Amino acid sequence: MAFTDKELIENLNDFDFNCLKCSNCCRIEPGAVFLSEDDFNGIIKFLNIDEKTFLRDYCRPVYKGIREIISLKEKINYDCIFWDNGCTIYDARPFQCRAYPFWYSIIESETGLKNEMKRCRGIGRKGNVKIEEKINFYLQHKNFIYKEYKL
Prior knowledge:
This protein is mainly α. The chain is built from 7 helices and 2 strands; from the N terminus they run αααββαααα.
């Protein structure tokens, strides 16, 4: 469902979130954490490793349309590759992680929102995310530019 600007602002203004630090968004269920060029560069700088090592050890290709883009790997139990009793790259975590749950796929879909609320008990709880931040996360996620996977 597409929103007018006014509807979007009203919807985001009413959308409460307070992270309970349960980490369900990082583990337990399969998923993909897509990377932008900035995410990619920030993580390799944070880890102090070269691009090829990062791609080989921490990333996997995922097809999105006809493009092969970068996603972080998951452990066999579906935890994020960087999950170890918390995010080991928290200061360099990808935009997708920072923007959760203000993804357009959650905000624009009643079904998506209902499903996400089952997984995340922080959705619907009063938090301290300002409306400007919510709008910024939403718009950046909607217009996200994926980094292509190239070895």
